[in-house]
Specification:
- The chain has 118 residues and is mostly helical.
- It has a domain of 45 residues.
- It has 4 helices and 2 strands; from the N terminus they run αβαβαα.
- It has a two-stranded parallel ribbon with strand order 1-2.
- α2 links the parallel β1 and β2.
- The protein is extended.
- InterPro entries: FAD-dep_OxRdtase (IPR006076), FAD/NAD-bd_sf (IPR036188).
- This is FAD dependent oxidoreductase domain-containing protein.
Amino acid sequence: MASDKELASLVTADPGLPRPNPTQSYWQHIPHPLANTRSESLPSERDYAIIGSGITGCSVAKTLLEHHPTATVTVLEARTLCSGATGRNGGQMAANAGEEYMHLAEVHGPAKLQGLRF
């Protein structure tokens, strides 16, 4: 297990720049009309600056504007909207969900799996 010092160095390490030419998901091959939305220049002042336009970044921007309609909010994105992890890893499909459920039911009992959804 990593020490507190090792964990602190990992958390504070410079993440570096985004990778050049990342993998593009097939659903991004025809970009959404808003994907390349950009401002001509960055504002010198903002109430809020949000790094990343994924699910979390866009949700935070939406919530801020709903609760503070006069706030100035800027979302910063290295590439196109939702081109990071949100756009690449939005969901997984597995053909063995039924088999897995049966295995879990045997191990834990069907009562414990009442609320589980695949």
